[in-house]
């Protein structure tokens, strides 16, 4: 049986995928796949253009090719991605972490650094943790912090726990629905958290047409979409929870729908948060919101 050369398979990738993704992205996919499935880098292929692969390796790459033709995200095919310089396992039960969410993590860490309170042990709650990317990145960069992470999906928490172990951090995971919180670890007391942070579902159904098929057809809708007539459902619940469970001067951070910045500011003002800041991401879209809880009377 004649073994195939990697260069031959690369040509097949371009023939079948360039019209969907473009040549540069197809090359990127190909090199990621041969690194993962063949332990062979782009540099090695340049030095050994006649490199052949085993039938098992060829089958794995061809399976990935078919999945790419169906516009499945490369992160799900590989089962992993990178976020804030850290490795994360992902699957169909977790959203693929986005660069704009990295900006939210950076905002939190920068604000903590600016306070010059390095010795303080922060208590942080991440609501709707998914893969755990926010909570784990904060825990990795704030080793003295006590980090909690909540999600309604048991399957997502299972993957988040795997990611916490992978990145060697301690995070307390809680399976609960923020729309109906009854978990004793969350409701036993009040004024417990220095920071509450969330990237909840915020895409309205009417905005589905703006989304690429690889997202719409593969990523969990539970973590993406909200009803058109109640787009702030999760933000309202989280804000009310934060009023009761943030310490005085505690901070609330959100990733938000770019079209609903004014509505989000109004929501925080309605619940008496101060020092409200609306931040844009690198694409100049309103994407992050921060508010500070007013001291208890």
Describe the structure in your own words:
It contains twelve helices and eleven strands. With 297 residues, the protein is α/β, with parallel strands linked by helices. The protein has two domains: 6-70; 95-293, Rossmann fold (3-Layer(aba) Sandwich). It has a seven-stranded mixed sheet, sandwiched between helices. A two-stranded antiparallel ribbon has the order 1-2. Strands 7-8 form a two-stranded parallel sheet. A hairpin with a 2-residue loop joins strand 1 and strand 2. The longest helix is centred in the middle third of the chain and has 17 residues, at 99-115. The protein is elongated, with a radius of gyration of 22 Å. The protein starts with 5 loop residues before the first helix and ends with a strand. The mean pLDDT is 88.
Brief write-up:
With 297 residues, the protein is an alpha/beta fold. Helix content is 43%, strand content 20%.
The percent of residues in helical segments reads 40-55%
Shape: elongated
Which sequence of strands runs across the widest sheet? 5-4-3-6-9-11-10
CATH class call of the largest domain: Alpha Beta
Helices and strands, in N-to-C order? Answer: HHHHHEEHEHEHEHEEHEHEHEE
What is the domain tally? 2
Mean pLDDT: 88
The fold-level CATH name of the largest domain is Rossmann fold
């Amino acid at each position: 049986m004649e073994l195939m050369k990697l260069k031959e398979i690369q040509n097949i990738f371009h023939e079948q995928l360039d019209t969907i993704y473009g040549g540069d992205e197809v090359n990127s996919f190909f090199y990621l796949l041969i690194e993962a499935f063949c332990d062979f880098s782009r540099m090695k292929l340049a030095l050994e253009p006649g490199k052949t692969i085993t039938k098992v390796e060829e089958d794995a790459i061809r399976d990935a090719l078919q999945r790419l033709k169906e516009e499945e995200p490369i992160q799900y095919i590989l089962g992993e991605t990178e976020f804030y310089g850290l490795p994360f396992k992902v699957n169909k039960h977790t959203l693929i972490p986005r660069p704009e969410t990295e900006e939210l993590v950076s905002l939190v860490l920068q604000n903590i650094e600016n306070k010059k309170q390095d010795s303080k042990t922060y208590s942080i709650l991440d609501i709707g943790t998914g893969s755990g990317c926010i909570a784990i990145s904060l825990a990795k960069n704030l080793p003295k912090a006590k980090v909690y992470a909540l999600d309604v999906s048991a399957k997502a928490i299972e993957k988040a726990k795997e990611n916490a172990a992978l990145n060697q951090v301690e995070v307390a995971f809680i399976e609960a629905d923020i729309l109906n919180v009854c978990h004793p670890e969350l409701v036993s007391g009040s004024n417990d958290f220095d920071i509450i942070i969330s990237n909840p579902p915020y895409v309205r159904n009417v905005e589905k047409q703006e989304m690429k098929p690889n997202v719409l057809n593969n990523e969990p809708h539970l973590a993406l979409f909200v009803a058109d007539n109640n787009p702030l459902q999760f933000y309202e619940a989280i804000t009310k929870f934060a009023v009761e469970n943030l310490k005085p001067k505690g901070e609330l951070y959100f990733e938000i729908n770019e079209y609903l910045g004014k509505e989000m500011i109004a929501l925080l003002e309605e619940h008496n948060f101060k020092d409200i800041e609306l931040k844009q991401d690198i694409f100049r879209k309103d994407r992050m919101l921060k508010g500070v809880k007013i001291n208890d009377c």
